[in-house]
Amino acid sequence: MNLERFKLIITDYLEGKLTEGEKGHVDDWYESISNDDIPPFIDANHREKIKQELFIRVGIAEEPARAKKVPNIPIRKFSWLSAAAAILVLGGISLLFLQHNPMSLSRKRTETVALLTETVTNAGELKEIQLPDGTSIFLNGNTRIRYDRKNFASNRRFFLDRGEAFFRVRRDTLHPFKIETGSVSVAVLGTSFNVNNSMSTKHVTVEVKTGRVSVLNAKNGANHILTAGKAVRYSVDKNDFETFDSDAAYISLWTQGGMQLNNISFKELKEIIYNRFGVVLLTENLNTDTFNYSLMIPHVQSLDQVLNIVCNIHQIKFRREKNEIILYK
Questions:
Q1: Which of 247, 252, 218, 246 is nearest to 232 (CA)?
Q2: Tell me: the pLDDT tens digits for 32-59?
Q3: Which residues, in sequence order, are bridge partners of residue 138?
Q4: Average pLDDT of 231-245?
């Protein structure tokens, strides 16, 4: 069991970052080290000595006089976890958890990680999946998602680590659907919308097809409520939002084999081409800083069709070299 991994688990628990299922595993682990059937301590005196040392180190108790016997005070779960996290951050007593019971938390951590179902699409791959609550998600190429499949009905939390996904969320007023991108959170009850977590541009774009969507930035507390045809783009570098209108009829066009480009840069076009077709778009002696694209293709028949449109816009040509497309004059 790695000490840094243990610190991460406890810190996430205290900060409320774990799912209900994950918190349950930490609770189970705590019960196992507190249960006399699986003793992490030599005896009762050893338990009291370690407890008092923890409390003193984190400033929640004063050091008793040497001749004074330490009272047998019941230990609350939160106090123990708080103390453990603080001591571990100080580089203190890892022996309490790692020497006396080294396999218990490692086993629980493995089980916790296994709770999150991960789906990754390759570049050039489109994939549709169904979530346990009846929600459908269409994934673009080069996309990575994670969610707790076992407990999803009661905790509809979804991670879009990278890439693009179109959601048709089944309505459940008791359990809001929440998407985490690392930069912003998207919360809905039941609606359809598109989220693009772009790694190359460091933008998170949310476009609403139907219903209402809440987009929140935890860093500055900014919150946008979007309705059909409304969109917002968050810049990670600038830490700000840009709102704009989006044609609701074409937001999910890419899931049906079409393509809609809404005022995007050449850098964004490169990412779209790679995710959609699995090829790298390069240029030769071209200044692409001013390149900008707003167009709609109802049905993309081939990569050449898209490239011909792009080349006609700039009066340039393209050639293929293995897995690369080079644009040139």
A1: 246
A2: 554 444 445 556 666 666 656 555 544 4
A3: 128, 166
A4: 93
User: Would you say the pTM of this structure is higher than 0.85?
Assistant: no
Domains with residue ranges and CATH for the chain: 3-114 (no CATH), 124-253 (2.60.120.1440), 257-328 (3.55.50.30)
Q: Cα 309 to the chain's mean position, in Å?
A: 35
Determine the Cα–Cα distance for residues 202 and 198; give it in Å rounded to an integer: 5
Q: What is the pLDDT of residues 248-301, one digit of tens each?
A: 999 999 999 999 998 899 999 999 999 999 999 999 999 999 999 998 999 999
Tokens representing 64? 């008793």
Neighbour-count burial of 152, counting CB atoms closer than 10 A to its CB (0-12 exposed, 13-18 middle, 19+ buried): buried
Cα–Cα distance between 207 and 204 in angstroms, integer?
A: 10
Enumerate residues 6+ apart whose C-beta is below 8 A from 283. Answer: 266, 326, 327, 328
Is 8 in a helix, a strand, or coil? Answer: helix
Please choose, from the candidates 84, 73, 101, the residue with its C-alpha nearest in 3D space to the C-alpha of residue 1.
101
